[in-house]
Batch of 3 targets.
Target 1
Amino acid sequence: MADRIRIGYFLEDRGHETFLKALVNRLAVEKGLKTGEWANDVRSASGGKSIEAYRGFLKDITRPRATNPFNILIVASDGNCKGYQEKRNQLLKFAEKVKLSRTDTLVLAIPDPHIERWYMSDPQAFNRAFGSGVLPVLPAYKCEKSHYKKIMQDAIAPPMSGLCSAAMNTARELCKKWIYTKQPKQTLRLNILSTILATRSSRSG
């Protein structure tokens, strides 16, 4: 379908990929899009190289006669205890440096400190999705990534080896139940929604 909304993803790992694709799916359906009306194109989702891939993409599309193949760009990078605002500013500066023509189509997903915290940020939804009967108890803030992975692993029943084995397969169900109550989760939701709606409106107008 030539008129599909094309979404490009620049992500750090499979945890980002599965969560964000599931979230986009939920929001697109909420706003009346039907399956097949958007297409996901993951350009990076391994090795923590989302920023490197994103910068390379920006360089490519700003060359003479080059075009941006995407209607929406989703760039994800863990805050890694640098904080949401600092990472957001860093990613925006890369787009501004190359004079990206449509920064309004750029959606920045910055789980701080790590994506595992987003999976567990709504304990009730997490429990309903995984059926573990155990609510994850999150510390106020921890920079060690392995800390959140262990909490998540301990809260999944039966125990699985790592994030990818269980969480990846139920991320869509989790996102269906996820409640958007705090920043920057609410900001991410609104950014994706507004970008999807603006894209659909411009393509149908």
Note: The chain has eight helices and four strands.
Target 2
Amino acid sequence: MATTKRALTLAVALWLVISPVLLGYEGDAPAVHNGLWLALFAAVIAIAEGLRPRLAVVQAALGVWLAVSPLLLGYGTAAGRLNHLAAGLAVVALTPVSRRWRSRQERDAGRAARSLPAPQLREPS
């Protein structure tokens, strides 16, 4: 599940890179620059999150910024505003999935470890 979440976050980051051209707002500099920077940060965090689980909080903050930044930066096009709102909500929605999955994995691993028989040592011959 964490790998799926990571792949979906990378897909959102890729979408942020190519969407200005596909949606026709490549001339809206604040939207393009903000999207490119956030795509870079989201991709790095998605890749590194396996190493540092606490980066999920940073990823959620980036998603919130992505969702509200069109209002604060005054994007000129509706396509840029809606695209960043949707992408930001997607990044935020993807963030808690790995935390729940990770805690479930840890709990299941602990149960499995407790159910294993104790190792028996052999006497040296």
Note: The chain is about 80% helix and 0% strand.
Target 3
Amino acid sequence: MARERWRKIRRAPGYEVSDQGRVRSVDRILPGGRAAGGVVLSPQPDRDGYLRVSLNGEMAYVAHLVLEAFVSPRPYGMEACHSPCLSEGRQDCRLSVLRWDTRRENARDKKRASDEGRGGWIWPPSKSVAPVAPEVQG
């Protein structure tokens, strides 16, 4: 397996993103001499299931960070697209499954994924709710 590569996030000094879709803060000394950083951030899904992280108080999409660091700044009118034949769904932010493309192509990808029955593309995931037994009081 190839070694994970990390690159600086230009729009957020003090953070890095990897080609595997992970984001971390870097070790640094804050004003006043206190040490900070060196932590992999926990991404949170938005309402559509795309992963975001908070960088300096601003939310950023992980897929955008990966593409901006390893491919190019976001071209005008382009979206971050997950290749349906390679990706495990919206939360798969590996560089190998991402690309910049048009809104039309992104919609085609979503259609292809749903036609192939790839459950990872559905958000929110279906929840099978088991009946809850009433509490027994004694």
Note: The helical segments are 62-70, 103-115.
